[in-house]
Structures are given as structure tokens and as C-alpha cells.
Amino acid sequence: MELTTVWFIIVGVFLIGYFVLDGFDFGVGMSLPFLGRDDTDRRLVINTIGPVWDLNETWLIVAGAALFAAFPEWYATMFSGFYLALLLILVALILRGVSFEYRHQGKGRRWTRWFDQFIFWGSVLPPFLWGVAFANLVQGLPIARLENGGWIYEGTLLTLLNPYALLGGLTLLLVSFAHGLVFISLKTAGEMRARARALATRVGIGGIVVGAGFLAWTLVQHRENERFGLIAACAAVAALALVAAWAANLAGREGWAFTGNAIGIAAALLTVFSALFPYLMYSSSDAAASMTIAGAASSQKTLELMTWVAAGTMPLVLAYQAWTYWVFRKRLTRESIPAAAH
């Protein structure tokens, strides 16, 4: 297997890890106004991800760095085309991260309410905009080749906000919301656990319906793709996993429900990457201008060096993250929240 293909897979793995892990972070943040009846409830919800949310977000940093080093042309073209959307994502992530650290400084109810709003909107915007971005990659964008061999995005922000992309954004938003609610029910006990499960059941239905529509639309768009069988198989796994997760949550099996949602998100992204390969960006204006993996990759020496670095560091990162989740595996209750924490 060529190193360009290997690094396409590695970048895909990093992005899948990010959306599976930070996906439930987003869902927890979105649940704040729905499950937080008082300050103790809201602190309890936030504490479910307190030890891990920043660790989860490092997957995005690693994915961005790998994308920049392995496929600089993809990085440059995508980030210039999605500039405003990515800027909104960055601002939302910054406000969300700051709010986790500062909301409980005890400076009054108005202070706390402002940071709760930042957490909510900072959890809503990123998954929606990420969904819009990836849907546009699968559908195709108006990109053109430059004389120097690079690519340029020729559309506008409104070009990105098409029906298919908006459906993709809504899909990731609802699935992340349900994923986060299941995580809350997995990490809490008592009334909070019951309320999170009940809300996850309702949100999960919406995620399944909208997600099925998005996956079906994707299959229709790529029905002539030579890898249609693989694309359809990944889409089927995603759909079945989300349905199984919903059923497991309904039965009170939060661990299986969380696993099902994780598999559903991963399979949905595999559907996207399978539809893209061997391209990185389709050109909707000129098929000959589409960006291929080989055409946008770094030099062979660069990819070889990156492969050795990744082989040495990734096992350590995975081991540390697994250890962190193991240490903070216990369920939380309202009684575990000290009065001074909220």
C-alpha cells in the first residue's frame, strides 16, 4: 500500500477518533439547558466530561497537524474555502473551553448564565458546521486548478449552505446530542441518569430519521461509484448501529448504547471517506480539476518520517487516554458535587 493511501487512512482515523470522543462532549454541552434544573444539576452534567473533554479535543489538533503535513494542498484549499465556517468553529471551541474553567468562579448567577450559554452554543455550532463541511466534501465543491499546480475554491459561504450539506450538519448535530446524553446516563446515577436516558430516546429517534435520509441521499449521489458496494456497506453499518444504540438505551444498557453510537459515527465517517477515495476534494465545476490523494500529498521522505513518528507515539497516546478513562470511570451523583463548585 502506498504511503499516500496510508496517510489518508491515518487522517481518517484521527478524525473518526475526534468525532467519536468530542462528539459526546458536544452532546453533553447541548444537554445543559435540558437536564440542568439547577446549578447542582448543571455542575453534575459538566463534571461527567470534566476530566476528559480537553484530552478529547487533542484529536482535532493531531488531525489538523497530520493533514497539514501529509496533504498540504488539501489543508490549504479546504481551509481557505471553509474559512468563515472554520473561524466560527474555532471561536465556539475557545468560548466553550473557557466557560468550562470559569463558569464556577462564584461571581453571581448572571456570570454563570453567560458561561452556560457559551457552553451550549459552543457545543451546537461545531458539530453542525463540521457536518456541513464533510457533506460538501462528499458532494463536491467548485474548485479549480491554478497555473502553479495548486487548487483554489471558487464558491462563497452560501455555496456551502446547500440542502445536502445542511442535512449533513443536522445529522451530526442530532447524533452527537444523543451520544452525549447516553454518556451522561452512563456516568451518572439516580434521577439524572433517568432523565438523560429518556431524552436520549427522543433525540435518538430524530438522529436515526435524519441520518437515514442523509445516508440514503449519499448513496443516490454515488450510485455509479466503483466502490458503491463498500459505501453502501458502511452506510448500512452506521444505520444499524444507531438503531441498536437507541434500542440499548431504551433497555437501560448504557454501555452498549454508547458503543453503538460510537460505531454509528465511525461507520458514517467511513461512508464519507469511502465515497471520497481516491480523491480528497471533488470539483463540481470541472471533474478534471478534482484533487487526488497523490496530487496533494507531501514528498515520499516526509511521509516516511511521519510514519515512523506516528508508529512510535500513537500507542503512548492511546494508552494514556485509556488510562484516563479508566481512572475516572465511576458514576457521579448530585451528592458528589460540593456546594462551592457551583
TrEMBL record:
| The keyword Metal-binding is annotated on this UniProt entry | yes
Give the primary localization class. Answer: membrane
Asked if DNA damage is a keyword of the record, the answer is no
Subcellular location(s) per record: Cell membrane
Q: Which UniProt keywords apply?
A: Cell membrane, Electron transport, Heme, Iron, Membrane, Metal-binding, Transmembrane, Transmembrane helix, Transport
Which residues span the membrane?
6-32, 74-98, 118-144, 164-186, 198-217, 229-250, 262-282, 305-328
Q: Which InterPro entries match?
A: Cyt-d_oxidase_su2 (IPR003317)
Its membrane topology:
Multi-pass membrane protein
**The family this protein is said to belong to:** Belongs to the cytochrome ubiquinol oxidase subunit 2 family.
Under NCBIfam families, the record lists: cydB
What's the name of the protein? Cytochrome d ubiquinol oxidase subunit II
Q: Which organism is it from?
A: Leucobacter allii
Point out the gene that encodes the protein: cydB
